[in-house]
Design brief:
The protein is built from 4 helices and 10 strands; from the N terminus they run αββαββββαβαβββ. It is an alpha+beta fold. It is globular. 28% of the residues lie in helices and 18% in strands.
Length: 204
C-alpha cells in the first residue's frame, strides 16, 4: 500500500525548507562580511634609506617638507613621492593604476614646522585637508599643498602662512598637474614635467 502524505506533513516540510534557506542566506552574508574585513586599508610604510621618489629618482630623506606614498594592490612596496603635489598628480595620470589601496601624505597637524615632518605621522590623502597657494614650499622648492588630518589646524596654518583650505576632491588638475612647481630636476641634468595630455615628458 502506498503511503499518503497529508497536507499537514507537506506544510511541515515547506517550513523546514524555508528555515534551511534562511540559514544558508545568513551564512552567505556572514562570509561576505568576512571578505570585507580582509580588505581593510593597509597601514603606511616607514620611510627608509631605500625610499626613492617616483618622479625625481632621489632619496626622500634628502628632502624637507611633507611627502607621500601610494599603496597599489598586489605590490609589497609603496610608490614614494618627495612632495604632496607629486603624490596627488600620480592619482590623476592616465598611466597610473586605477585602483589604489591607500594614498598617504604627511600629516602636519602635530608639527610646528612644515619643513620638518614627523616621519611616522600620515593621513589618508582622500580624507585630508590641504592648504594651497600658501608661502610654504615643498621638498622640491615649489609651492606645495600642505596636508592636515585636522581641519582646524589647516585653517590656523592658512591664517599664518596664507592660502586657502581645500578637501582632496577640490584639488584640480590645473593646480596639481600644470603648475610650475611640478617641474622637477633629475640626476644627469634632465628634468621631468607633465605635458598637455597629462603624461610625464623628459626635458634637457
Amino acid at each position: 500500500m502506498k503511503a499518503i502524505v497529508s497536507r499537514r506533513e507537506i506544510a511541515m516540510i515547506c517550513d523546514v525548507s524555508r528555515w534551511l534557506l534562511a540559514g544558508l542566506a545568513l551564512a552567505w552574508l556572514a562570509a561576505c562580511s568576512d571578505d570585507t574585513g580582509a580588505g581593510e586599508q593597509p597601514p603606511p610604510h616607514a620611510i627608509t634609506e631605500e625610499a626613492v621618489g617616483y618622479f625625481c629618482s632621489m632619496n626622500l630623506l634628502e628632502h624637507s617638507g611633507p611627502k607621500g606614498q601610494v599603496l597599489v594592490p598586489g605590490e609589497d612596496r609603496p610608490v614614494w613621492f618627495s612632495t604632496v603635489r607629486q603624490t596627488v598628480a600620480y592619482t590623476m595620470l592616465p598611466e597610473s593604476p586605477r585602483v589604489l589601496s591607500a594614498v598617504y601624505v604627511s600629516d602636519l597637524s602635530a608639527v610646528e614646522d612644515w619643513r620638518r615632518v614627523n616621519p611616522d605621522a600620515w593621513v589618508e590623502a582622500r580624507s585630508a585637508w590641504f592648504v594651497v597657494e600658501s608661502e610654504a614650499t615643498g621638498g622640491m622648492g615649489g609651492e606645495d599643498p600642505m596636508p592636515f588630518s585636522d581641519r582646524s589646524k589647516a585653517e590656523q596654518f592658512a591664517q599664518r602662512h596664507g592660502g586657502r583650505v581645500l578637501a582632496f576632491d577640490a584639488l584640480t588638475e590645473d593646480y596639481i598637474l600644470y603648475a610650475d612647481s611640478l617641474f622637477e630636476t633629475r640626476p644627469g641634468g634632465t628634468s621631468q614635467a607633465v605635458g598637455e595630455a597629462g603624461t610625464m615628458t623628459e626635458h634637457m
